[in-house]
Amino acid sequence: MFSVCDKASGLFVGHGVVVPSPVSLPLCYCIEFVEGPGRPGLGPQRVPGSHTLHYLFMCASEPDIGLPLFEALGYVDDQLFVSYNRESRRAEARAPWIGSRTSSRLWLQLSQSLKGWEHMFIVDFWTIMDNHNHNKEPHTLQVILGCKVQEDNSTRGFWKYGYDGQDHLDFCPETLDWRAAEPAAHATKLEWEEHKIREKQIKAYLEKDCPEQLQRFLELGRGVLDQSVPPSVKVTHHVAPAATMLQCQALNFYPQNITMRWLKDKQPLDVKESGWKDVLPNGDGTYQGWVALSVPLGEEQRYTCQVEHAGLDQPLTATWEPSPSNALVIGITSGTTVCVIIFFTGILFRTLRKKQASRGAMRDYVLAGCE
Asked: Is the pLDDT assigned to residue 236 strictly greater than 70?
């Protein structure tokens, strides 16, 4: 066991790990787990009036090349503003407002801090792999950590580890210990809890340094981060054998929070009937969302999509409107169907008439023979 403070880099070294010193930390990292069907997801969810500063760290082991691959993505609220990887080893601006308004000193501090986090999490990665006896096969580590500041100025911190796509360890600031999400994580949990120096630094960082730096970035992004972009909404139509699929799309909106629901005869559907939905980033800072619903064929006009968003003065509604080409196709299809029915009806009618005539002639022939 050893404890050394590297004053030049601001790193605290202890228990075989490297932790950035709280005094030198200029940044805060925060992200939340968002569970999805069948798999865990990652992404911040901003409550109106609240703000987050969050980082996602990803490591991937490659036994053939030695050091693990490493990448970091930084977000203010749900806007990507910085990236970092092991090849460049420097912070790279991913949003215009951060590149044009940030001083060179702050950007240098950001790069130095990301280098420190890289060192720390690679060592943690090795520790976790050793405790799993994983030394040969490729593995992955994800770290999400930081803080959220609520509208009433209360704060909440996060520091979570995921290993090979599964929840692994979750830091508890109140008790200064780690919650193991799976049995295999207990060895690492006990190792990290042997001394509380690391945990006290993490707690101080999440509760003090992170909210202060979040406020600093919010000031830099003023006029951009607080600007709402309303969605454009449309409803599309897809015909299936036994039903019709209606899909409502909300395009190019910001911030991420949006409410999309289906109405039937102007009344909200029950939650169980509301259909499938998702919200995805466009890559340019805006988002797109969709909600789909299966409806009986011919009842499409009874359903309306309603969208609520911070960029809209009032809820926006949209229904599926058949295009002229669709109407023409429907008309042709209906006309063809009617013609086919008439054609076969005529053939059937003529066949029955012929049979009746044949039976009449046969009856006349039999009667003549009897006489």
From this structure: yes
CA 223 to chain centre: 25
Quote the CA–CA distance of 337 and 90 in Å, as a whole number: 67
Residue 42: strand, helix, or coil: strand
The amino acid at residue 241 is P
SS3 204: helix
SS3 319: coil
Strands (E), 77-176: 79-85, 92-93, 140-149, 155-163, 166-172
Q: Measured between alpha carbons, how far is 91 from 210 in angstroms, rounded to an integer?
A: 18
With a CB cutoff of 8 Å and minimum separation 6, the contacts of 144 are 29, 30, 31, 32, 33, 42, 54, 55, 56, 57, 158, 159, 160, 162
The residue extents of the domains of the chain are 3-220, 232-318
The model's pTM: 0.65
- The fold of the 3-220 domain, in CATH, is 3.30.500
Peptide bond connecting 255 to the previous residue in cis, omega within 30 degrees of 0: yes
CATH 3.30.70.1450 fits 232-318, yes or no: no
pLDDT tens digit string along 192-206?
998 889 899 999 989
- Are the C-beta atoms of 154 and 68 separated by less than 8 Å? no
Percent of the chain with pLDDT over 70: 73
Two structure tokens written together for 354: 């012929």
Residues 281-327: tens digit of each pLDDT: 887 778 999 999 999 988 999 999 999 999 999 999 999 988 765 44
CA 368 – CA 311 distance, rounded (Å): 93
H or E stretch covering 70: strand 69-76
Residue 348: its H or E element = helix 324-370
Is residue 307 within 8 Å of 259, Cβ to Cβ? yes
